[in-house]
C-alpha cells in the first residue's frame, strides 16, 4: 500500500487519462456486441417522404438540420436529451449531436446524416467522456447500424468540417456552437416551410397520434384511481402528477409537456405545473396531460374531474357552459372551414354564458368585438392549436398559413375551451372564486368532418361523474 494521492484520484475531472499504465490497461480486455439502431417502425420510410416534400419546396437550396444537444441542468449535470422535432421529422433518428445535410441535385436533393461515432473501448472518450463515453452511459449503435436502419448515407460528424455549408438554410433552434462552427445563419424561411409541411399528417403520423392519445386516455384512468390515496394520505397533486409521468415513461417516451394537476383554486391557473398543493375532496381537479410516444408524437388532453365523484351545483353549471362551448368549437372542425372558426364559435358561447350570469360589464357584441374582449378575463388563452411532434405544433408558420388557413384532411388539432375563475378575482361573487374547468380533445380532420381521437373520455358532466366514480371504485 502507498499513501500517495495522485491528482487523478477523483472522478470529477478524469485526469487519470494522463496515466499510461491506466490507459493501456483499460483499452484492452473488453468484449464487444453490436448494438442495433432501432428507430420506431415505419419512421425511416416516413422520414424519406418528408424529405422529398421539403425538397420540392426548396429546390436548389442546401438544408442543414441539427438534432440538438442536451442543455445543462446544473453544474455538470444535463437534462435528458430530446431530439429536435424537425430533425426527427426529416430523419426518424433521435441521436444527440447529429446533423442532416440535404444538398441540391437535378430533380431533388441528396441527403446525408452526420453522426458522432460512439466512444468504443480503446478510445479515450470511452472512459473520459462522462456524458457520451460508453463506460458511463452504455453502448450505442455505430454508424453502419444507423445507415442500415434509416436507409440513408451516414458519415462521422467530424467529416462535416470539410463540407462547404456557406449559404445553407438551417433552423432557428440549431445548436449555437454548431451554427458558428459551420458559418450557418438560422433561417425563418426553413422553419416556416417545415411548420407548414408538418401541419398535414400522413398515415404513419396519424397512427402515432392515435397511439399517443390511447396511451394518454389509459393514463387518465391510472390517475383517477389514485385520487383517494392522494387525499387520504396527504400526497396531493404531486402524487397524481407523478402517477401520470410514470405511466407516460413506462408506455411511451415520457410526457409530451409538463403535466398539469390543479385542485381547487389551482385549477384556474393555466399552467399550474408546480403541483405542490393538496387534492381537495370537494373541489374540481383539472388534469391536462399527454403521453409522448416513442416516436415523439404527443397527445394533449384535458378533463376536469370532481374529486369526490360528483360535481357541486356551481361546478356543474360552469362545466355545462364549457361543454357547450367545446361542442360548438368541435362542430367547426371540418375540411374547408377556416382554422379560426372553431375558436370564434367557442368564444361566442363563453361570452354569452358569462353575460347571462351578469359577469360582463358590456353586451355580448361589445365583448366579442376586437376592441372589447372583456370575456377573455376569464379565458385568456386561445381555444386550441395544432398537435404533433410538438404539443403546440407548427408554431413557426406565418399567420396566414396557420390562423387564416383552411382546414384539410390530415390536420390534427386540439379544441380546449375553459373558464377560469381565479380565487383572488374580486369581480366574481365569492361562490364562483377558485373554480376552473377545461375540456380538451384531440381531433383529426377527415375527408367528411373530424374524428375525435380522445372520445374514449366523456365530456358531459354526467358522463364524467360516472367515469370518475367507476375509477374511484377501482382505487387501491
TrEMBL record:
Belongs to the peptidase M24B family. SUPFAM superfamilies: Creatinase/aminopeptidase (SSF55920), Creatinase/prolidase N-terminal domain (SSF53092). It catalyses: Release of any N-terminal amino acid, including proline, that is linked to proline, even from a dipeptide or tripeptide. Keywords: Aminopeptidase, Hydrolase, Manganese, Metal-binding, Protease. GO terms for molecular function: aminopeptidase activity. Gene3D superfamilies: Creatinase/methionine aminopeptidase superfamily, Creatinase/prolidase N-terminal domain. Its EC number is 3.4.11.9. This is Xaa-Pro aminopeptidase. InterPro entries: Aminopep_P_N, Creatin/AminoP/Spt16_N, Creatinase/aminopeptidase-like, Pept_M24, X-Pro_dipept-like. The keyword Protease applies. Residues 45-185 form the Aminopeptidase P N-terminal domain. Its cofactor is Mn(2+).
Amino acid at each position: 500500500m502507498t499513501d500517495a494521492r495522485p491528482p487523478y484520484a477523483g472522478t470529477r475531472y478524469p485526469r487519470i487519462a494522463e496515466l499510461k499504465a491506466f490507459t493501456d490497461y483499460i483499452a484492452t480486455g473488453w468484449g464487444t456486441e453490436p448494438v442495433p439502431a432501432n428507430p420506431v417502425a415505419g419512421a425511416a420510410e416516413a422520414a424519406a417522404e418528408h424529405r422529398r416534400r421539403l425538397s420540392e419546396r426548396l429546390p436548389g437550396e442546401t438544408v442543414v438540420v441539427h438534432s440538438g444537444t442536451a442543455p445543462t441542468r446544473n453544474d455538470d449535470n444535463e437534462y435528458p436529451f430530446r431530439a429536435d422535432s424537425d430533425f426527427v421529422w426529416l430523419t426518424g433518428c433521435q441521436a444527440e449531436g447529429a446533423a442532416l445535410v440535404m444538398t441540391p441535385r437535378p430533380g431533388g436533393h441528396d441527403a446525408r446524416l452526420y453522426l458522432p461515432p460512439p466512444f468504443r473501448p480503446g478510445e479515450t472518450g470511452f472512459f473520459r467522456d462522462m456524458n457520451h463515453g460508453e463506460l458511463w452511459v452504455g453502448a450505442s449503435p455505430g454508424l453502419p447500424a444507423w445507415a442500415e436502419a434509416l436507409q440513408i448515407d451516414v458519415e462521422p460528424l467530424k467529416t462535416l468540417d470539410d463540407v462547404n455549408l456557406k449559404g445553407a438554410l438551417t433552423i432557428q433552434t440549431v445548436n449555437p456552437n454548431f451554427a458558428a462552427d459551420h458559418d450557418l445563419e438560422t433561417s425563418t424561411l426553413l422553419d416556416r416551410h417545415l411548420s407548414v409541411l408538418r401541419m398535414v399528417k400522413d398515415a404513419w403520423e396519424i397512427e402515432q397520434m392515435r397511439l399517443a392519445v390511447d396511451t394518454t386516455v389509459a393514463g387518465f384512468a391510472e390517475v383517477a384511481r389514485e385520487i383517494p390515496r392522494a387525499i387520504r394520505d396527504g400526497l396531493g397533486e404531486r402524487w397524481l402528477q407523478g402517477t401520470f409521468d410514470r405511466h407516460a415513461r413506462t408506455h411511451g417516451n415520457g410526457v409530451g409537456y409538463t403535466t398539469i394537476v390543479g385542485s381547487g383554486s389551482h385549477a384556474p391557473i393555466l399552467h399550474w405545473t408546480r403541483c405542490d398543493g393538496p387534492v381537495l375532496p370537494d373541489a374540481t381537479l383539472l388534469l391536462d396531460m399527454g403521453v409522448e410516444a416513442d416516436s415523439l408524437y404527443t397527445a394533449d388532453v384535458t378533463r376536469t374531474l370532481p374529486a369526490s365523484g360528483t360535481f357541486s351545483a356551481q361546478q356543474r353549471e360552469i362545466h355545462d357552459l364549457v361543454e357547450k362551448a367545446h361542442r360548438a368549437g368541435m362542430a367547426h372542425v371540418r375540411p374547408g372551414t377556416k382554422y379560426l372558426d372553431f375558436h370564434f364559435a367557442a368564444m361566442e358561447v363563453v361570452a354569452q354564458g358569462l353575460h347571462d350570469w351578469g359577469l360582463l360589464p358590456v353586451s355580448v357584441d361589445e365583448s366579442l368585438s376586437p376592441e372589447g374582449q372583456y370575456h377573455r378575463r376569464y379565458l385568456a388563452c386561445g381555444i386550441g392549436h395544432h398537435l404533433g411532434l410538438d404539443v403546440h405544433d407548427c408554431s413557426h408558420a406565418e399567420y396566414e398559413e396557420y390562423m387564416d388557413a383552411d382546414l384539410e384532411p390530415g390536420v390534427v388539432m386540439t379544441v380546449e375551451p375553459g373558464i377560469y375563475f381565479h380565487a383572488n378575482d374580486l369581480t366574481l361573487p365569492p361562490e364562483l372564486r377558485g373554480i376552473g374547468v377545461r375540456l380538451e380533445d384531440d381531433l383529426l380532420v377527415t375527408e367528411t368532418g373530424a374524428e375525435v381521437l380522445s372520445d374514449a373520455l366523456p365530456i358531459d358532466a354526467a358522463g364524467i361523474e360516472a367515469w370518475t366514480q367507476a375509477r374511484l371504485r377501482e382505487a387501491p
